[in-house]
Amino acid sequence: MEKGLLSIVLHAHLPFVRHPEHDFFLEENWFYEAITETYIPLIHMFEGLERDQVPYQVTMSLTPSLISMLKDPLLQERYIRHLDRLIELANKEIERTRFQPDFQETALHYYWELTQARETFTNRYYRDLTWAFKRFQDMGHLEIITCAATHGFLPLINRTKSAVRGQIKTAVEQYEGIFGRKPMGIWLPECGYYTGVDQFLKEMKIRYFLTDTHGILHASPRPKYGVFAPIYCPSGVAAFGRDTESSKQVWSAIEGYPGDYDYREFYRDIGFDLDYDYVKPYISPDGLRINTGIKYYRITGRTDHKEPYSRSRALEKAASHASNFMFNREKQVEYLYHFMGRKPIVIAPYDAELYGHWWYEGPEFLNFLIRKVAFDQKTIRLSTPGNYLREFPINQVSTPSFSSWGWKGYAETWLSGCNDWIYKHLHKATLRMTEMANQYRGQNGVVQRALNQACRELFLAQSSDWAFIMHTGTMVPYAVKRTKDHIMNFNRIYEDLKANRLDENWLREIEGRNNIFPNVNYEIFCGSQ
After folding, report:
1. Which residues does residue 403 pair with via DSSP β-bridges, in sequence order?
2. Beta-carbon neighbour count of residue 389 at 10 Å?
3. Under 8 Å between Cβ of 169 and 204
4. In terms of Cα–Cα distance, which of 189, 168, 180 is closest to 133?
5. CB pairs under 8 A, 24+ apart, for 420-428?
6. What are the residues whose beta carbons fall under 8 Å from the beta carbon of 402, sequence distance 6 or more?
7. Can you say how many angstroms the Cα of residue 15 is from the centroid of all Cα atoms in its chain?
8. How far apart are CA 338 and CA 220, in angstroms?
9. pTM exceeding the 0.85 threshold for the entire prediction
């Protein structure tokens, strides 16, 4: 007998990175790698489940910045160029490894995988992968939820109501335009909750959000069922908390499945391993060695000596891990069912890019897991938070505590000595945006364009990714430059409008470069601060 529900939630997000002023831009590769290694493999997984008539329900966020990139013609064209170069390299690798049996099978696999990715991207979905995810949602298998417009960390940009409302309203409007319906749920950026943010969600008719474990456990009054049932905020919006057990099995650096020695080693790539002249056409044009995605070694162990990767052996391990994960959820749900006296829901949220990009066998793990849940047991059923609320509409009312899924669970990742300088600029820009929106309400022509672009620049500066990168110490100069560029663009628009000296040529240039949210309306900042 079914005793509980498992909700797999994949958070698909990338910061908006688009540089038409350069023929090649290294950070754009984040996007291309995620398409090849995560989004297309997930689409192939969903297609296989559909083909085999496997019953399943999965939740997936597609953030507005990611959707904007997926629908951008320039990035679509550049992705095909990127993919064609990799296919050429993979073809050369088949020849190079012809007399190396330990590597030949893997080389053939890469060529097949890349050519399949190109077929899916260009011929099945005509370069726009949002169509694929929309189709799975329309079929009832996938619940797509939204996020804030540019993944702004809402607890730290809430200097004004308009800042938070603008992030959420813009996201909802984009979602409706793409998917033809309102989003039922939202992934709060970085799972960042603060008291009152749910009022903005209610205003946008969002039914639920996801937060971290302690946001629910420290709620007031204390939730009777912990994170294994949602709670309703006083606003009526439901909050679902992350289950630590299921997260630990995947995320843990010590116990997590992705660290198994049979899985592919992420850090050994032919872009670094092979002769420079051989890989030169496929790395950065300035000669910088970069990852190509073609890797021939398995993790092996805590050693510099790496053994050759075996795809079949890795898939056997993924199937074994899927069985173990399902067994643990069965036992967890059986215990909770008898303890709670009702069906629990286990929320298992992950960054989507973990599956495929960081953990190469991740999509296969999910595929095995979904099929095993459907056919190999009767204790748990896959569901989504939205469907859980339809089945179990009566839940406890409680107010979550301030929380995030960042380091130490609060705001330290996005507010530390290396990135705290950004917030005085963001707060000032938000006040100025509200001032301009009220002063120039109803304007059209170049003034309207300037105000809409000011809105875009503010949103892009608010992205939590820049503060995160500064904190972690990776690609810091790029994150600092992006933050400063957007703030300076915003301030120039403000000052030029005030002085009645708008430069239309300059405005056209930044409209073409930072073209996120083409339908944004600056009047979302009108009204009180």
Report:
1. 193
2. 20
3. yes
4. 180
5. 422/461, 422/466, 422/467, 422/483, 423/156, 423/157, 425/461, 425/483, 425/487, 426/157, 426/159, 426/163, 426/458, 426/461, 426/462, 426/487, 427/157, 427/159, 427/160
6. 155, 193, 194, 195, 215, 410, 411
7. 9
8. 25
9. yes
**Sequence ranges of the domains in the chain:** 414-525
**Helix-strand-coil percent breakdown of the chain, rounded to 5?**
55, 10, 35
- Token pair 């943010």 is found at 197
185-187, strands of its sheet edge to edge: 185-187, 208-211, 238-241, 231-232
Q: Do 380 and 2 form a contact (C-beta atoms < 8 A)?
A: yes
Amino acid at 220: S
Cα torsion through 224, 227, 230, 232, rounded to 10: 60
Q: 221 preceded by cis ω (within 30°)?
A: yes
Q: Which amino acid is at 325?
A: F
- Cβ atoms within 10 Å of 511's Cβ, excluding its own: 16
First to last CA, the chain: 53
Separation CA 483–CA 420 (nearest Å): 12
Q: What is the mean pLDDT of residues 223-236?
A: 97
Instruction: Count other C-beta atoms under 10 Å from residue 64's C-beta.
Output: 26
**Distances in whole angstroms, Cα of residue 519 to Cα of each of 102, 173, 407, 429:** 52, 9, 35, 21
Within 8 A by CB and 6+ apart from 329, the residues are: 6, 246, 346, 380
The model's pLDDT over 372-404, given as tens digits with 9 standing for 90+, comes to 999 999 999 999 999 999 999 999 999 999 999
| CB neighbourhood size of 75 (10 A) | 22
The count of residues in the chain is: 529
pLDDT digits (tens, 9 = 90+) for 430-450: 999 999 999 999 989 999 999
pLDDT digits (tens, 9 = 90+) for 238-276: 999 999 999 989 988 678 999 999 999 999 999 999 999
In terms of CATH, what superfamily is 414-525?
Families 57/38 glycoside transferase, middle domain (1.20.1430.10)
